[in-house]
Design goal:
single chain; 164 residues; alpha+beta; Aminopeptidase; 6-stranded mixed sheet; 24% helix; globular; transferase; acyltransferase activity, transferring groups other than amino-acyl groups; Acetyltransferase; GNAT_dom; acyltransferase
Length: 164
């Protein structure tokens, strides 16, 4: 995750914003506890990871400054959350991100959700747009030092005809 943040964000953010990103991104271990987090391995080594959540938290990891909300969502009215998507920079743009997105969307659909949302980094926008996500709003997360990091809330209606 650290390498993905450090290397893949550089074309989109200043050095200060990349450094500040560590305060708002990362793994929320609640996803692991909920068994909604996936890891893609290549010869036993992790090359990508990401998950989905039936909880209200949209983004932020265990060590981030972003407040997390563990309350469960109602699939009948709420959107599931796609969370903590990372691909090893050495394996980027090889379909790993799309594979993880498909796993997450299929699992959310199987849990009864008709919609999903995520908070995208600027580097992640092309992947999410290619997966059918639309921008809902552009926002900024602010670090403890006052550095503003642009992120984009995105959403998608899941295809109900796709098999689980």
């Amino acid at each position: 995750m650290t390498r993905a943040i450090e290397e893949l964000q550089h074309g989109f953010l200043s050095r200060e914003q990349v450094a500040a990103s560590h305060q708002i991104m990362g793994l929320d271990t609640q996803l692991v506890k909920d068994r909604t987090y996936f890891m893609i391995l290549n010869e036993g080594a992790p090359v990508g990871c990401g998950g989905w959540s039936f909880r209200a938290t949209l983004f932020g990891g265990d060590d981030s400054i972003v407040a997390r909300e563990p309350l469960p969502l109602d699939p009948a009215k709420d959107a599931a959350k796609i969370r903590a998507m990372y691909v090893d920079p050495a394996h980027a743009r090889r379909g790993i991100g799309k594979a993880i997105m498909a796993l997450c969307e299929d699992a959310a659909r199987a849990a009864g959700f008709a919609r999903v949302e995520l908070m995208a980094t600027l580097a992640g926008l092309p992947l999410y747009k290619a997966c059918g996500y639309r921008a809902i709003e552009a926002v900024e997360a602010t670090s403890r030092e006052g550095v503003r990091v642009p992120i984009v809330r995105m959403g998608k209606v899941l295809d109900s005809t796709r098999p689980h």
